[in-house]
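Co-fold these.
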Amino acid sequence: MSITQLSVFLENRLGRLNDVLAVLGQGGINIRALSLADKANYGILRLIVDNAQSAIEKLKKADISVNSASVVAAEIEDEPGGLLKAVKILVDNGVNVEYMYAFVEKSGDKAVVVFRVEDNEKAEEVLKASGIKLFTDNKGSF
Amino acid sequence: MGDFDAKIETASASGLLKIQSERLKTLLRYADARMPFYSNAFREKKISVEKLSLPGDLKHLPFTLKSDLRDNYPFSLFAVPVSDVAEIHASSGTTGKLTVVGYTKNDIKLWSEVMARTLACAGVVKGDMIQNAYGYGLFTGGLGVHYGALELGATVIPVSSGGTKRQLMLMQDFKSTVLTCTPSYSLFMAEEAREDGIDPSKTNLRVGVFGAEPWTEGMREQIEKEWNILALDIYGLSEIIGPGVAMECEGKNGLHIWADHFLPEVINPATGEVLGEGDEGELVITTITKEALPLIRYRTGDIVALTCGTCSNCGRTMPRISKIKGRIDDMLIIRGVNIFPSQIETVLMNIPEAAPHYQIIVKREKHLDKMEILVEVVEEIFSDEVRKLEELEKKVVSEIESTLGISVDVKLVEPKSIERSMGKAKRVVDQREK
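Predicted complex below.
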């Protein structure tokens, strides 16, 4: 049910982000959501792409260190309070959110948010029980 | 034959002392007669070779420094005419001129013998296939091992250093049983092997004879695990003869130094005073049987401790030196604290999440020394959570601080971004102005 997120360790030096994006762009990989956590000396680029397996192979081949994790992508109302509704469901059920970010494109008239939580199964269960739709793969099927 | 020589290698203490005293006397007479560098020094210090009581009086003789070899570049220190020199080697100084050494035919014979003894000490026998990945050329590593292998009767593959893919191919096709190279190159090879889908623990290798750079017990464990072999330490330096000065046996309790040819002392590097058994200090060696370039009390710059007595593993009675703890010239003085790169390595080896690949950068900012350690992030550990990387950084900082008593900056870098070495690893980059 959960989808695959890639994370890339990036040293903080000129052109490093460019290198990663070039590998993906030239490899025909489409980035659907991303977030960058930045520290003084390094950053972690988190990505949801349309073909995670192919992206991992291409990045590794280019000597870029990449790791994967499972995350939950949920469809929320694109209106005031939409995100709050989803987060409240998680909080009320004791699911801790490590971090979150949004998809670049919309799903119809709704927004899509990526949640990195400790317990994926529980998050999926409680969100679905509240009628929130979840992506079942990186292509965006429900 | 130059393999295990029981008469010499298990000689009684008094027997060895007698041989050393006689050879030392002969050497001093030889140097006095043939080497103006030494005869002038003796005259200046009013030393009469004939009046010395040896080996006790050795401590009154002057030291020979690496700079003495450089100052006499290329051949002025030789005790024989250049026409009697059979082979010349040189080591690249990090600063300026080469250090040049020469060998007569007899010196090459001696080198072959001590090197054969060294390989035998590591358990190498006729029938072994030695993959010699030390560099061939002016560097003594390649040819030294080569001569020893010939003398011992083992088969040697003179592959030299580098060309890792070819090394791995030969290793599999020729079924090499012994690997000789620098310890850091062996790890580099193992890493490459895995990338090429070869399991390094499944080769025919049985033992590795690793040296030419200091390495820690942690690194030994890692090499032994990666390759599934016995990893033993060899010691040597071109000024003395090249590889084959001292060697560990399977017992791994110090390196047996061939003291019937190379007379060891350990001194306090600051005062020159001779230290006792077990005390850590600078290794000083007098070559007592060489012809072309014998050296008296040569300061190796290597920090060791000396142990006497019979080895509980192999029964050899030759004195033993500890693994090299560091180099006098690698010693960093950071805000007044003496630090050896090997100490940093030991700390990192004890943190499983940190890769063994590191580099130390020393800078001076606002008149204060700063030490920065670049540590590669291991792919398996690398996480999407910043918190875990921060914890790793903090762990390295605090472990180093509690072990060495200095504060450092730790910078995590991408896997494989620190330059890998074919020869000696560049562990320290000192950016301070001299």
